[in-house]
Design goal:
Helix content: 25-40%
Structural class: alpha+beta
Strand content: 25-35%
Low-confidence stretches: none
Strand order of the largest sheet: 9-10-13-11-12
Shape: elongated
CATH architecture of the largest domain: 2-Layer Sandwich
Largest sheet: 5 strands, mixed, barrel
Oligomer: single chain
């Protein structure tokens, strides 16, 4: 993409009404546009990042047997009344509306009822199970406050997978697979070294659950990490390495009181729950086993907020000049910067990259060197390639990583091979 054709522009000053770093950098870099508090539009650069994250998650969900579908945002009141979660006294963050025919409808705030209602129509026998449907969709929650940029919003984009198993044993087997799948997601997204699988409260669903928490000073959660596991991120022992503050007193009874734990602030980037039959029972979601007996389907829930993950990446991978995108989620792999008065050489390099399948943002704008470098730092693309009068005299270009200081001089005819091997 030619940067001169990108309608978005960078902004030097941070928005006065944004306190979170992720929102400041994303707005300044032209990744998102704020509509109202907690609601953002994703601009071309931001959408590219979001889609990279989506594809990573999709690949890992498919790898464990997930089946992608698409559920509606508009929700049927009668479906939610079955679980008693339509009532505002039970769930107080619904966005609801009245249709012109007088009926009420709501905008999705979660998906348990939706999936249970759908699966009820197709599950009859033990041969129909297990099943692992999931989707990516917009979710709406009428939050009282929203001050963390895209980490906590009133409208956000998430992935939710629900497991439908014959029994608890089959469920637990998949649950453990999902721990590994989530580990792969966060590793590939570039924050696995900072992310811990924590033992957490199951809320209204179960006694305990697991949350994936990324160490970050901007986080709203507090976790305790065993000193022997601190610094290992998702390589740690998943049973005892990290505990959420909300269940510390309860869980500490089960561990050695002499064990030394580090207290850290963190951002929740994913969660997995055992639902049991909490949502299968209201929908009479059952199946006939091998002996012809009726049994309730055993469920689990597995969620990741894509915007939240994107915002967390920025909160932990940045410097004073801007974002430092990990390679797998960056909007482009290469930022090609022309510093010459003539674009002919840079145009040819750009076309060669396009023909070779390399994702490149080409800064062909008539801007000063300082402005181009400042924008490149802010946008945070992993590899910067500089074409200048100095480099062309040696038939070369300068190559530098966004997160490093080393500058390499690479011959122009070798640059494609160089980029394909990094």
């Amino acid at each position: 993409m030619r940067q001169s054709k990108l309608f978005t522009k960078t902004i030097k000053q941070s928005p006065k009404d944004e306190v979170s770093l992720n929102a400041q950098y994303l707005i300044r870099g032209g990744f998102i546009n704020k509509e109202i508090a907690g609601v953002y539009s994703y601009l071309p650069l931001g959408l590219r990042v979001l889609k990279k994250i989506e594809n990573i998650i999709r690949e890992e969900m498919n790898a464990v047997g997930g089946i992608e579908m698409k559920t509606s945002i508009m929700q049927n009141k009668e479906v939610w009344e079955k679980s008693n979660r339509w009532d505002d006294n039970v769930v107080d963050n619904w966005f609801k509306t009245k249709l012109k025919n007088g009926m009420e409808a709501g905008l999705s705030f979660t998906n348990e009822e939706t999936y249970s209602n759908i699966l009820k129509q197709y599950v009859n026998s033990y041969k129909d199970l297990p099943s692992y449907p999931y989707d990516f969709k917009e979710i709406f929650r009428n939050e009282v406050r929203s001050k963390s940029g895209i980490i906590r919003g009133r409208e956000f984009y998430w992935k939710a997978l629900y497991s439908f198993s014959k029994d608890e044993k089959e469920h637990i087997n998949f649950y453990e697979k999902m721990k590994i799948a989530y580990k792969k997601v966060f590793d590939r997204a570039g924050i696995g070294h900072l992310t811990y699988l924590t033992f957490a409260s199951g809320g209204t669903f179960s006694k305990y659950s697991h949350e994936f928490q990324t160490i970050c000073e901007a986080g709203e959660d507090i976790i305790y990490i065993n000193k022997d596991d601190y610094g290992k991120g998702l390589e740690m022992n998943p049973n005892h390495a990290a505990i959420n503050k909300e269940i510390w007193n309860d869980y500490s009874k089960e561990i050695d009181e002499k064990e030394d734990f580090k207290k850290k602030k963190a951002i929740e980037v994913g969660n997995i729950f055992t639902l049991g039959t909490k949502f299968s029972e209201p929908f009479d979601l059952k199946y006939k086993d091998e002996k012809g007996n009726d049994r309730m389907v055993f469920m689990g829930s597995y969620g990741i907020g894509l915007g939240r993950l994107m915002g967390t990446i920025i909160e932990v991978l940045n410097d004073d000049n801007g974002i430092i995108w990990p390679d797998n989620v960056a909007p482009f792999k290469v930022h090609l910067i022309n510093l010459m008065n003539d674009n002919k050489v840079s145009d040819k390099i750009y076309q060669n990259m396009i023909d070779s399948g390399i994702e490149v943002l080409y800064d062909d704008r008539e801007k000063s060197t300082g402005e181009k470098f400042a924008d490149a730092d802010l946008i945070g693309i992993p590899y910067r390639i500089i074409v200048s009068e100095k480099t062309i005299k040696e038939d070369s270009v300068e190559v530098k990583r966004r997160d490093g200081d080393k500058i390499e001089l690479i011959k122009i005819d070798k640059i494609i091979d160089k980029l394909k091997n990094v």
